[in-house]
Amino acid sequence: MSVLTALFVVGILCVRSHCAPTPQKTPLSIIFPGEIRSNMSDVEMAEKYLHNFGYLALEQGSDSHVSIRKALAHMQRKLGLHETGDLDQETMDAMRAPRCGVPDIGNFNTFEGELKWDHNDITYRVQNYSPDLDPEVIDDAFVRAFDVWSQVTPLTFTRIYNGVPDIDILFGSDNHGDPYPFDGKDGLLAHAYPPGPGVQGDAHFDDDEFWTLGTGVVVKTRFGNADGALCNFPFIFESQSYSTCTSAGRSDGLPWCGTTSNYDQDKKYGFCPSEYTAVIGGNAQGDPCVFPFTFMDNTYDSCTSEGRGDRKLWCATTSSYDRDRKWGFCPDRGYSLFLVAAHEFGHALGLEHSDIQDALMYPMYKYISDFQLHSDDVQGIQYLYGPKQGPGPKPPGPTKKPSTTTTKKPTTTTTTASTTTTTASIDPVDPTQDACNVKVFDAIAELQGDLHFFKDGLYWKVPAKSQGPPKAPLRIADTWPALPDNIDTAFQDPATKKIFFFAGRKFWQYTGSSVLGPRGIEKLGLDKDVQAVMGAIPRNNGKVLLFNGEKYWRMDVKAQTVDKDYPKNTDEEFAGVPTDFHDVFLYEGKYHFCQDRFFWRMTWRKQVDRVGYIKYDLLRCPEH
After folding, report:
1. Which helix (H) or strand (E) covers residue 191, if one does?
2. Which residue of 85, 295, 377, 585 could cross-link 69, Cys pair, CB 3.0 to 4.6 Å?
């Protein structure tokens, strides 16, 4: 048996250009600023691949040439390719394909015992979420992925929120806490460990990937005439096909999309929020595409592959690439979280990779719109756990969520060095504590998709879709036991999902329930005269802006140091907001500067588009 992840084909977007590009005998290919291209030869890449996935170690010998030929033949046989022993084009294409990070031969480590669970009710916990999808969409993808296996076995899957689960699920990037780092966008998509204690059974997903349902970014439109419907990609406009948001047909440059497959026919559309047009990679630090933009004196109002030998879609993040040379890749079809999760959960249940290309447990990724579990996968999982009792299996589809239980345990604290892991029992808080009676909050931050309001040891959560004020508060100490009662600001890094809290000259870093700190902000490179960090705006690509009144810094989250050429003056970059603010935070893709009872909302283009009441517009308290 085997693991998922396979060949991915990105549809080429038909772009509409105001000026036809100059005809060329060969495709134009330029080096974009900030782009790193590998100098590794095909042979070097092949050797690394064969070693990483367990083939080369099996064929070690005195003659390296013969050893590599044997390893290549073994790999070709294992992956269902033509067995030649040569590094041919089919083999190179397979090596470049997105795939699961679990080795094809052997496992990450040598684990003792039979690699299957000794019980049928498997528990799981979701540690964090990807910013690419709403949490409820991610939860549903995991539920459906588990159901793939419960349909054909006696296994059941129960989500828990406290205690120790069998399967811990997390999103992380690069070095994410285990010995097997991810490799950035594309390449390795995810990995999982076989059943057992500790890290065994856990599933990790690369947060540098673009996670979707397999058919492109899930964009919730605003305004327009489609009542907030999702974009439908691709869609037809003026007889041309668009696979991303576009400004075609508009003189104001606002990105929009069709919400049916044919705008020309149905006339249904909505506007795309800026966070859905943010670029990936490049040198623009996650800024949104700007349409139209100029490239080599031609004008484009959609993402284009012009100038790229690899035909990847990109856009400029200013109106003129020729002048500013700011750019990034456009979101593509992405990878189906459901399919990748179903594959990884197969590993977490004890399955290895399959050599059948249509099997779920085949190592390479391939999108399947009407997925059904292959007989090879069924035979493998039933060998471990037996068949499902009762009626025969039916093809998995939309399912009801498995029952969820909350397991309460006594408070336990384990401390090693400066890292603390805590499971805390939560006592009820007086429900009469009304957030609408608070005049000024200590801090406001968007964490895990919800807006959090902090005050004197308590916090209130306002979900994104909430229509009214928050209910009873929660205690900071119950959720983040290491923190003081009063904090100055907080933010969550979009890439790692780590949450940072600042209070005075100290800061704390939470990863799930584990905490690092407190540490002094001087460790970040902030001046000794900085007494507090009063606001934080996380950016893509691992950067965050830290504010202290008249000054602000840009910090690299991974290195945890501020960048050179900082601090800078707040009023020069963020004109139009008060400099005596007491908090700054990012919410729904826009910057919010708070002073007393009011907030100034600023777009990514640094334009103030609203001044509102914190109490009524953010807390959603009734006006009376």
Report:
1. strand 190-192
2. 85
Quick check: pTM over 0.70? no
Question: Was 132 annotated as part of a binding site?
Answer: yes
User: Cα(561)–Cα(555) distance, rounded to whole angstroms?
Assistant: 6
Note if 588 is an active site residue: no
- Residues contacting residue 127 through CB under 8 Å, at least 6 positions apart: 168, 169, 170, 171, 497, 512
> Do the annotations mark residue 545 as ligand-binding?
no
Fold exhibited by the domain 217-275? Seminal Fluid Protein  PDC-109 (Domain B) (2.10.10)
Q: Where are the domains of the chain?
A: 121-209+335-354, 217-275, 278-331, 413-618
Q: Is 139 annotated as a binding residue?
A: no
Q: 119 among the known binding-site residues?
A: no
Matching fold, domains 121-209+335-354 and 278-331: no
Res 444: pLDDT: 94
Considering only CA atoms, which of 349, 410, 392 is closest in space to residue 119? 349
Q: How far is CA 546 from the centre of its chain?
A: 22
The CA distance from 505 to 345, in Å, is 43
CATH class of 413-618: mainly beta
Which of 47, 344, 352, 446 is catalytic? The answer is 344
Taking the C-alpha atoms of residue 204 and residue 347, their distance in angstroms, rounded to an integer, is 11
Distance of alpha carbon 501 from its chain centroid, rounded?
21
Fold of 121-209+335-354: Collagenase (Catalytic Domain) (3.40.390)
pLDDT in tens, 480-511: 988 999 999 999 988 778 899 999 989 998 98
> Which fold does the domain 278-331 belong to in CATH?
Seminal Fluid Protein  PDC-109 (Domain B) (2.10.10)
435-470: b (≥16 Cβ within 10 Å) or e? beebeebbbbbbbeeebbbbbebbbbbbeeeeeebb
For residue 84, what pLDDT band results from cuts at 50, 70 and 90?
Answer: very high
Q: Is there a binding annotation on residue 183?
A: yes
Cα–Cα distance measured from residue 464 to residue 468, given in angstroms and rounded to the nearest whole number = 11
Establish whether 343 is an annotated binding residue. yes
What is the spatial distance between Cα 343 and Cα 84, in angstroms, rounded to a whole number? Answer: 28
- Peptide linkage before 288 cis (omega within 30 of 0): no
